Amino acid sequence: MMNHTPPRPARRAELLAAGAAAVTVVLWASAFVSIRSAGDAYSPGALALGRLLAGALTLGVICLLRREGWPPRSAWRGIAISGLLWFGVYMVALNWGEQLVDAGTAALIVNTGPILIALLGARLLGDPMPPRLLAGMAVSFAGAVTVGLSMSGGGGSSVLGVVLCLLAAVTYAAGVVAQKPALGTASPLQVTTFGCLVGAVVCLPFAGQLVQEAAEAPASATLNMVYLGIFPTALAFTTWAYALSRTTASRMGATTYAAPALVVLMSWLFLGEVPGLLTLVGGVLCLAGVAVSRSRAAARAGGPGAAPEPRPERTGGSAR
Q: Domains of the chain: which residue ranges?
């Protein structure tokens, strides 16, 4: 009988990548609470710019301390595309779209992102799509929609809101797929830092709104915006890039389906929103789907359970 246990170095790399992915998902889920607070005082564009500026400043300081330097030329295409689409357009579209549609519609549209990542990853990056990955994503998607519908306040949906949520899903997926090749020659910190800078530049047209709204916003809203920049952006996007550099885009996208379950828990703890039975069922489905998609059998088909992908020599920066 064959022993499928990976060698110790591969196992350690697998655990590190899984831990980085877990940090990302927890921090992205925590962003829900902060966005709820900051969104009352800041418009979508201003909130995105403030978050990106805080994130870029934090990442820039870390890069200087670590003497990371500039990314190699070969990585800039992926950095620029992911910065434009994921850090820039996605954040504005998501902030705006979720103000115009009910939670169920937002869950249905935005959570197509990981599915689009899998499709684009298979088409453009050659990512494998084992049956367990597809089955797990299907279960998690059903859970995410269930959570959204159960937490919906019965609000309506506008055509603009639906379009914005769809734009958020598409730009998220395209940004992730564009980021993956850049991680072959640049460090996760470099890719995240300069992607965040590109996103901040894209959002500069909202600078006037940010200045005006910051002068009137309560301190709690501004602190939440800064938190979004430091933790769910600077830290979580870096741990995301670290994990993505060691697995496929498809599997990383599937992992983010754990976020809706964590949002339910955090809303209960920090916002006093007691989840109903349907919400809890949806959260369990999300976690079950992630467990299936990351199972050892699926991992042997090309996921984190397999040996890490070989990485070519980098021409600039230092390893994280």
A: 12-294
